[in-house]
């Protein structure tokens, strides 16, 4: 069995069944040894994981089988015990493998040191000594700063002289200096202070050619795209970090302006063939381009070119934010914020052959960035709405709310129910509750649970509710009658009209009630009109509703309870009166309609419909 060194790019292997050939003949301090990760020391384990570019939240079971070879430790990290070389309990692996400068890939070095100089102004300290200037020049010539994303600090080999920089196989590294504010305190545990090198986040690009930074010895475990991964927010921060002196004048306002400019920047759909015509000539000398390499990452296109005179360059179709293409973030954000789904956008882009992020990348961006942003914005908006409701309580204007539930699937097989509560004055959803079917006896019982839970939440937030509008569900009616008698319960007219329409449609299908079919729409409109024009008086609402039975027979003036009653519409002409298909009072259709209009339960419920409350706006929001 052979076990690899866990350091990325390290070719060393450990043979567990047999010793290496000639290994025992080497001196003790030159033998290659392998060392397990310190799983019993969490602080030192995190430093080891950072050194090998792994997540610090990696499970202990995965760490137990990982080892590092002795080439990643300095001689001072070892001690001799009984002629054996053992690793000290405070040792932390260095970053680099000792390699020759000749082994570096020239394409990994910066092609434009002049453009990299200003970017280092805020990252490297200003020096006046000639020897320190030499260090700055060496770093400028060896560091490619184009698009350096968010990085993870790891500890390198120790530097014996201030004028020497260790050879690094990594093309993009930034020097960070960490120092402890209290040097007099001695600790038995290793300090996170010292000299560190920041590496860019590992990116996995979709390409039909080999990437510049691609290596054959890269560990297979690092093949995934970790540009979407982040450290646990509960991870302890390194308070000993002392930032270098910087001449950068960037402020949060400037960063916000740059982000807004990136978002407002116009974007065009460009064919690949037309775009590649721009890379036929060198931008420096005008010579013909001999080689171009294209690398894609979702919506990002990266072109690397080289001309016949040796000039090289790179071009990106969009900016990168911490190693992630900005357009990938914008595509995912626009899809989510417009209420669309990835399937719809992907089908549209596939027909157009437009390059967008893959499904896994889309959902990774959504869960890591977009949903937290939506959650923060929702809480801010909810607090503003609740503050407005509290102001209404202070001004004694009364808080009128309406609520309705929506299941994830129709019928009796729903698994989730979302109960939303809307403010009647602003038509804004102030609260919602999500209920799972396991919390109720059946799918029908989810809505009452969500209603009661949401109402209790608003009451606990200090909202005094005067009117609550819901449908005529028997379970919700009982909850309002028993648990909240101080709140006036109104019935949603939209649900009442919808139920009455279904009853009329059902009875009109019978042969003897066919004459009702032309009147169904007018009858439902009359119910809306009666509720809207009663001015909150239940008696007026009942009278207007009963007047339907006189109007539908062509009788527009009648006497009731010793008073003369008339229809609210204008007088009809003789021709209009003659052409209308009125019902006869002795007909079966009229008797059926009278039974529905004068039903005791409907007349009783009308006393809770006089305020003309409905959830039409809420239904529209739920259908989005």
Automatic annotation (TrEMBL):
Thylakoid is among the record's keywords: no
GO molecular function, one term: zinc ion binding
THAP-type domain: residues covered: 1-96
UniProt keyword terms in alphabetical order: DNA-binding, Metal-binding, Zinc, Zinc-finger
Annotated spans, Disordered: 98-117
Compositionally biased region (Polar residues): 98-114
UniProt cross-references to PANTHER family, sorted A to Z: PROTEIN CBG10204, SI:CH211-108C17.2-RELATED-RELATED
Name by which UniProt lists this protein: Uncharacterized protein LOC109049388
Organism: Cyprinus carpio (Common carp)
């Amino acid at each position: 069995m052979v076990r690899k060194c866990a350091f990325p790019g390290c070719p060393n292997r450990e043979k567990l069944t047999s010793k290496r050939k000639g290994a025992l003949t080497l001196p003790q301090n030159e033998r290659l040894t392998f060392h397990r990760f310190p799983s019993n020391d969490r602080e030192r384990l995190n430093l080891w994981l950072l050194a090998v570019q792994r997540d610090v939240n990696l499970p202990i079971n995965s760490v137990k089988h990982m080892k590092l070879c002795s080439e990643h430790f300095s001689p001072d990290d070892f001690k001799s015990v009984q002629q054996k070389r053992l690793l000290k309990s405070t040792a932390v692996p260095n970053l680099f493998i000792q390699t020759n400068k000749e082994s570096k890939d020239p394409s990994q070095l910066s092609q434009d040191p002049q453009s990299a100089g200003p970017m280092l102004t805020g990252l490297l300290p200003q020096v006046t000594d000639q020897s320190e200037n030499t260090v700055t020049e060496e770093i400028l010539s060896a560091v490619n700063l184009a698009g350096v994303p968010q990085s993870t600090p790891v500890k390198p080999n120790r530097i014996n002289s201030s004028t020497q920089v260790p050879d690094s196989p990594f093309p993009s590294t930034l020097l960070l200096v960490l120092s402890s504010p209290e040097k007099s305190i001695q600790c038995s545990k290793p300090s996170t202070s010292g000299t560190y090198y920041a590496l860019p986040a590992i990116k996995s690009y979709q390409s039909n050619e080999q990437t510049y930074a691609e290596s054959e010895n890269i560990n297979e475990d690092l093949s995934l795209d970790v540009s979407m991964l982040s450290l646990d927010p509960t991870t302890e921060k390194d308070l000993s970090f002392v930032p270098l002196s910087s001449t950068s004048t960037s402020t949060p306002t400037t960063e916000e302006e740059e982000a807004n400019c990136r978002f407002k920047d116009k974007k065009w759909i460009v064919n690949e063939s037309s775009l590649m015509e721009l890379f036929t000539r060198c931008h420096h000398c005008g010579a013909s381009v001999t080689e171009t390499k294209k690398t894609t990452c979702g919506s990002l296109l990266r072109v690397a070119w080289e001309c016949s005179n040796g000039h090289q360059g790179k071009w990106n179709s969009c900016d990168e934010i911490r190693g992630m293409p900005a357009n990938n973030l914008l595509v995912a954000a626009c899809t989510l914020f417009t209420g669309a789904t990835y399937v719809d956008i992907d089908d549209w882009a596939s027909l157009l052959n437009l390059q967008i992020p893959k499904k896994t990348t889309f959902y990774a961006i959504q869960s890591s960035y977009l949903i937290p942003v939506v959650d923060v914005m929702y809480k801010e908006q909810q607090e503003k709405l609740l503050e407005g409701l509290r102001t209404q309580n202070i001004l004694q204007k009364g808080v009128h709310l309406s609520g309705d539930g929506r299941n994830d699937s129709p019928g009796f097989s729903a698994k989730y129910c979302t109960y939303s509560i809307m403010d009647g004055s602003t038509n804004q959803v102030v609260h919602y509750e999500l209920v799972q079917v396991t919390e109720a006896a059946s799918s029908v019982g989810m809505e009452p649970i969500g209603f009661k839970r949401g109402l209790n939440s608003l009451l606990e937030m200090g909202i005094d509710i005067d009117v609550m509008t819901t449908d005529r569900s028997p379970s919700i009616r009982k909850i309002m009658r028993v648990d909240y008698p101080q709140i006036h319960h109104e019935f949603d007219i939209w649900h009442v009209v919808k139920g009455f329409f279904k009853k009329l449609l059902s009875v009109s299908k019978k042969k003897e009630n066919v004459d009702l079919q032309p009147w169904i729409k007018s009858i439902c409109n009359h119910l809306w009109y009666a509720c809207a024009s009663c001015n909150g008086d239940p008696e007026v609402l009942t009278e207007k509703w009963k007047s339907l039975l006189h109007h539908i027979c062509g009788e527009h003036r009648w006497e009731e309870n010793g008073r003369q009653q008339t229809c609210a519409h204008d007088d009809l002409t003789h021709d209009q009166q003659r052409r209308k298909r009125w019902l006869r009072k002795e007909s079966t259709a009229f008797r059926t309609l009278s039974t529905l209009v004068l039903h005791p339960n409907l007349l009783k419920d009308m006393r809770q419909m006089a305020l003309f409350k409905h959830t039409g706006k809420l239904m529209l929001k739920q259908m989005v």
